[in-house]
Amino acid sequence: MQTSTLAPRTESERAFTSPQDFYRRRDFGQKFEATFAFLGKHGGNLYRVLLVPMLVTMAAMAGLFFSVFSSMPTLERGDISSVQLLMVPAFVGLFIVVMLASLATYAMMYAFVKRRMESPDATAPLTVAEVWAEARPNMLPLLGYGFVAAVLVMLGYMLFFLPGAYLTMAMYLLPCVVVFERADLGQTLSRSVGLIRGKWWSTFGLMMVGGIGVFIVSAAVGGVLGLVFGFMGVFSSDAVGTAGFAFVQSVQMALNMALYPVLFLLLMFQYFNLVERRDGISLQWRVQEIGQTPAAGNAASGTDDTLFRPSYGDPTL
């Protein structure tokens, strides 16, 4: 008896190369399973694509860290010399580089997923050029919409606190809305708030568990390195100890940069889950595929993913 291609499968069995593998209802644990299953199949390709923006971000963050760290003794004495004043433009410049490189990292991460699910050849690795071509149009919207969202969140915290906390979780979904839906500012903000309605606590719990996991791994690595350096007597000398402390911080910084994409992939699967619950995207896709001839490359699944045009609940799309 032939098994239906639409029958439920475990996350590890999904190829994550077509929309119906992403737009699905998932419970709390299944979002973690989907994240690690996706990384198991596409993590190598994803991290190769993200390598350059991640390295730029780490280099700029290291520059910021060393700038602040080297200025601390002077600031503690209350003496701000002309050298420190000259460092201010460099500090601001490095901060801007960090923000832009981080923005490029997450724009390219979601663009990678979007291009992966739309690629006609599910087996071909995606190149940096392909992903950047997908991510580039989203950079300005992410920057501008993100700034507006940050202002709204700060106002929410300043006024009543609870609106700020609510908007914080909603705005975590904003990059997904920008990349996958290409909406304008008003639609993006209202969409992010609409998706989180009734699902604030599950999104908060997902962020908490994922964030704690990242913190534990980073702290464990930093703790092990600290113990090793302590037994070696590295911290007994001020000069060598400072270098050792800076090295530990740099390792933790690099590890955090490598782990944060995992956290944002978790949020991405929460986004797909919320869209599916709200709009029934996979049902739309199944309706569209009825009576269609399988496309080349999709004959095994009996579906044509090029027909997938999510309307997000808008019948005019």
TrEMBL record:
Originating species: Hymenobacter oligotrophus
Name recorded for this polypeptide: Glycerophosphoryl diester phosphodiesterase membrane domain-containing protein
Positions of the UniProt region annotated as Disordered: 295-317
Parts of the chain that traverse the membrane: 49-70, 90-113, 142-160, 204-233, 253-272
Superkingdom: Bacteria
Keywords: Membrane, Transmembrane, Transmembrane helix
